Amino acid sequence: MATAADHMLYIQEKVNPVLEQLVTQLLLDRPEDPAEFMLAWLKEKHRESGFPPVSSTADSVEDLKRILGELQQKKADLEEKLG
C-alpha cells in the first residue's frame, strides 16, 4: 500500500507539472468555458503522448461488437440452411 510520502512524490512528479501547464494556459487564454477548455487541452496532451485517443478505442470496441454480431447471425443462417 502506498504511503503518504509515495502520494506526495507522485503528485510532485506526475500531477503538478501537468496542472501547472494547464492552469498557465487557462490564465493566458481565459476561456469562457474553463471545463470545456480543460477537456480539450487534456485531450490534446493525450494525443501528443502517442497513446491512441480514448474515443477511437471505444469506437473500435463497438465496431468489433457489431462485426461479431453480424458474424454470429451469418453463422446461424448457414447452420439453419444446413439443417
Task: Please describe what this structure looks like.
- The chain is an all-alpha fold and 83 residues long.
- It folds into 2 domains: 1-51; 53-83.
- It is built from 3 helices and no strands.
- The termini are far apart.
The helix count comes to 3
Largest sheet: none
Distance between the termini: 59 Å
Q: Provide the gyration radius in Å.
A: 23 Å
Provide the β-strand percentage band. under 5%
Helix fraction bin:
over 70%
**Structure class:** mainly alpha
Low-pLDDT stretches are none
Number of strands: 0
> What sort of overall outline do the alpha carbons produce when their principal axes are compared?
elongated
Break the fold down into its secondary structure elements and pairings.
Blueprint: H1 4-29, H2 34-48, H3 54-82
Defining traits:
single chain, 83 residues, mainly alpha, 2 domains, 3 helices, 84% helix, 0% strand, elongated
Provide a concise account of the structure shown.
The chain is mainly alpha-helical. Helix content is 84%, strand content 0%.
